[in-house]
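A note on notation is needed here, since sequence and fold are reported together in a single record. The reader may check this reading against the record printed directly beneath this paragraph.
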Amino acid sequence: MLEAIYLKVTINCAMSADGKIALSSRRQTDISNEEDRKRVHELRNTVDGILVGIGTVITDDPRLTVKREYVEEPKNPVRIILDSKGRTPPDAAVLNGEARTLIITAEECEKEFPNAETVRCGTDRVDIAKAMQILEGMGIRSILVEGGAEVMWSFLKSRLADEMYIFIGSLVIGGDSSPTAAGGEGAESLEDTVELRLRNAEIVGDGVLLEYEVVK
């Protein structure tokens, strides 16, 4: 049995007024406004690590760093990629050497990556609970989960997430295939849903920021 995990996990995402986080093609679109972008970079600057799944890396190719235009003295947290089968492209922005990067794969994957350290845990796919314990053992005390939909749902359903920030932009994306903030298989019954406790709601520019605590 795994020991208790004390690493703090914050989920942050931006969604349209109809709950979509990307276009129907799954390509990211600009939902946040300038005020929210500043908030996100300030939030990044307070955590030890920023985590995304391989789908986000392949689709959006994010750098996962803190921009100096938003933070006067930026410190780049560790970039953490959940990549069970080792699909991170060698030219991905997260491998640019700009910040420390960890690629977490399943145990069967033997692939190595330039400018990155590799952690292997889980059979067939990454065991995120075990991965969090490993990260905690490496001295990482807080992480910011930024996507994608399946990764966010995995942290929510396992109750590994402690809090969730949702920025709601003033636009509608539509589409049955457009991803939402929680993907994967989802809850099969009311008992399987994840309860949130609203802590704060505020207007941020032309959008709204909701701050939730995850009930465990």
In short: The chain has a mean pLDDT of 95. Residues 8-214 form a domain with the Dihydrofolate Reductase, subunit A fold (CATH 3.40.430.10). The CA atoms of residues 49 and 78 lie 4 Å apart. The first helix runs from residue 34 to 44.
